[in-house]
Write a structure and sequence with these properties.
Elements lengths: L5 E4 L6 E9 L3 H8 E3 L12 E9 L2 E11 L10 E8 L1 H13 L3 E2 L4 H8 L5 H12 L3 H11 L2 H25 L10 H19 L2 H8 L2 E7 L5 H9 L17 E7 L2 E7 L9 H16 L2 E7 L6 H11 L5 E6 L8 H5 L8 E4 L8 H12 L15 H22 L4 H18 L6 H9 L6
Parallel strand pairs: 1-7, 8-10, 8-11, 11-12, 12-13
Antiparallel strand pairs: 1-2, 2-6, 3-4, 4-5, 5-6, 9-10
Helix pairs in contact: 4-5, 6-7, 6-15, 7-14, 14-15
The protein binds guanosine-5'-triphosphate and magnesium ion.
Amino acid sequence: MFTTTIAAIATPYGRGGISVIRISGDDAIAIADRIFKAKNKKTLAETKGFTMLYGDICAEGRVIDDGIASLFRAPHSYTGEDTVEISCHGGILITESVLTALLAAGAVQAGPGEFTKRAFVNGKLSLSEAEGVINLIDAETKDKMYLARSHTSGVFSREIDRIYENLLALVSQTYVYADYPDEDLTDLSVTELSDGIQKALADVEALLATYKAGHAISDGIYTVVAGKPNTGKSSLMNALLGRERAIVSSYAGTTRDYLEEKATIGKIFLKLVDTAGIHEAEDEVEKIGISRSVSALEKAELVLAVFDASVSPTEEDIAFLNKLKTLPIPKIAILNKNDLDTDCTDQYRVYLQNGFTGVLSLSAKHKKGLDELKNTIESLFVSGEIDYDNNAIVANARQNASLLQTADHLKRAISALDSGFTQDIAGMDIENAMATLAETDGRNVTTDIVDRIFHNFCVGK
Ligand SMILES: Nc1nc2c(ncn2[C@@H]2O[C@H](COP(=O)(O)OP(=O)(O)OP(=O)(O)O)[C@@H](O)[C@H]2O)c(=O)[nH]1
Ligand SMILES: [Mg+2]
């Protein structure tokens, strides 16, 4: 399917013990033989797959290093093509020289994710398994790593296949009906067909219900810490990060520009944004900072609204709080500085009765009450333990969108039967559902989507 043989450095750029340069394609073995001379005098061409040979690596007419060539013969390789992986010493110049020699010997430089794209196109991986590979590489939290592994090991793909097979069995019965409408050949009554579709819809909806957690684990939740100046937003940011990242001072207007950092909260992570205090400002720079705070709020998936509960609420607090109530996302009100004697928490609670997902009194400075805040945040997205080895979890917006379309088609099939249409009419909706379900895992997806997904990979993977 691919005419070129690609090569790329598969290990990170830098000094290290070993670097690996990968070559994949019809000419991979011949090209590797041009630069690699095994000590046992055998060429890779006359060596069987799954073999490692030790030998010299040649470039520019001389031996530049010695190393290992690992040979994988099609289809038994990551890409499904003939593949050679050359391990050399991990110096930047050595590694680049090996790659340059391979390019001179006939390979072309691989683009980002091209090895995995070939694996997908050659049927070695489903799309959700390939997406799992990039998440595994990108994982900075344990749960993102476990979820990615669940995808690379096919837990999600198998669930999609299972639902697909059930729909295929149903649709084949509707074909029998369509071909012989007057004969009593089909085993399925309308009620049984409707039950079967209901069951598939329940399976799809169960998957859709996992996206909230999958998104929080895999993508993180864009969370904005907002409030008036000096309420303790940056102190809260630092407390949640567990390090002194943002500048904290008693001067109102300390944070001028917004600051984004990742904070792990149990199984999920937040893309936590500290913002400039929102108020009527005169200063030009401050005005820009405040407008950035407002834009961040517009993108937010969760707001931590910080109030200084050591002083009574002002008109400005109440106006801000009422404005927040109009945002259609979860909001947690933080009544900060509860360590001070002048704790006015109860005065705030009067205004916070509706429209907030949670109201918590804490001290960001003294890191008191943070566990409750973390539990509240985590429980908005994840409840209980997650069985990554057995439960399929939707991990990205693309998968979710295909499943939403699948659910719509199935609902249409059910209402067709409810309205008295014949089985073959419902069958058309089931077929549409099968098409979008197949897209979820990469069958039927357009090349544009495939290109976009693999573009997010690193070169060499
Ligand atoms: N007593 C007490 N002081 C706090 C607490 N949290 C923050 N502060 C103090 O309040 C002041 C302002 O804190 P910051 O975290 O800089 O507040 P901010 O909301 O980021 O302020 P701006 O960036 O100016 O909008 C600092 O002097 C903090 O030490 C708290 O829980 N208790
Ligand atoms: Mg600040």
